[in-house]
Amino acid sequence: MESDQVMFEIYRETEYSGKFKVVYFTELQDHNKEWEISRALEGEHFYDGFIKNWRKEQAKAVIQEIVERLNEGEKLGPEDVETALAEFIPASDTSSS
Q1: Cα Rg for the chain, rounded, in angstroms?
Q2: Angle at 10 between CA 83 and CA 40, to 5 degrees
Q3: What is the pTM of this model?
Q4: Which of 19, 28, 38, 51 is the most buried (most CB within 10 A)?
């Protein structure tokens, strides 16, 4: 995995609140890595992919807005995420959305 990309997943919790969450796998620290990965695996997958490390804060803001919209009940699909993140997705990304 290239260091100029951040791997993430948007998922819906099924064991806890039922809310949509996002996890940035490549930014997890050793102390929380297993717990965060377990929570994501237990959840319902919605979208995963990579964002460019360059301008990642802007991309994270877009992702957070998507998560908030989903949690407010808006019906969005993976294609909506791709459209919103188009300028932040590395050209070689083949996400498994």
Answers
A1: 13
A2: 160
A3: 0.85
A4: 51
Contact between residue 9 and residue 40 where contact means Cβ atoms under 8 Å apart: yes
> How far apart are the C-alpha atoms of 12 and 40, rounded to whole Å?
8
Q: pLDDT band at 15, cuts 50/70/90?
A: confident
What is the domain range of residue 70?
5-88
Percent of all residues in the chain with a pLDDT value above 90, rounded to a whole number: 64
Total structural domains within the chain: 1
Instruction: Show the CA angle centred on residue 73, arms to residues 70 and 78, nearest 5°.
Output: 40
pLDDT digits (tens, 9 = 90+) for 39-85: 888 999 999 999 999 899 999 999 999 999 999 999 999 999 999 99
95, part of any domain: no
Tell me whether residue 6 is exposed, middle or buried, using C-beta atoms within 10 angstroms of its C-beta: 0 to 12, 13 to 18, 19 or more. buried
Examine residue 94 and state whether it is found in any structural domain, yes or no.
no
